Amino acid sequence: MEYVYVFTIGFVISFLGSIPPGTMNLCVLQLGLERKTKIALRFTLAVALIEYPYAWIGVEFEHWITAFPNIINNFQLITAIVMLVLGGLTVWTSNSPVPAIEKFNDSGFRKGLVLSILNPMAIPFWIGITAYLKAQRWLSFPTKVHLHMYVLGTAFGVLLLLILFAYLANRFAGYVTNNKLVKLIPGITLLALGVYAMGRYLLS
Asked: Which end of the chain is less packed: N or C, by CB atoms within 10 Å?
């Protein structure tokens, strides 16, 4: 039962923590609006695969990473750059598709891997959440199996949420087939989040 408990904790937090707008769920939203459900599902699988090692790094190396604040600041800078570049490309190619970018977007799994690796903010997120749960005595890892069940839960949590995003966006796509403004929303949102993240980095 302890294994089920830590898995469920990781699953629920990952599911809820992936709801706010971010690089991954906005990409899935865009793919869903474009009715590219199969590509979106391959993308979500790649994201879940990267979530596992990133969550593990956050938990396993918590004390070492928090001892060097510059590391987390660099994570934030990388995420800000990725959001700005991705948002800019999304807006730019909405009216004039670029073959190379279209090919990358349609790769699904490969795109998910690349963007997930370039989005390391999952590490400080899991450092903070796990440290809080430990401090409240709601979570502990007496064995390595407990730790990996927890991390596995985080991967399944983000996987399920992104799958739901993909299918909901696909269902909604019929209403926005010819609405270019709605299809620009993911790109514009990414740009706004990128500017915000860059601002926080520069002011920190």
From this structure: N
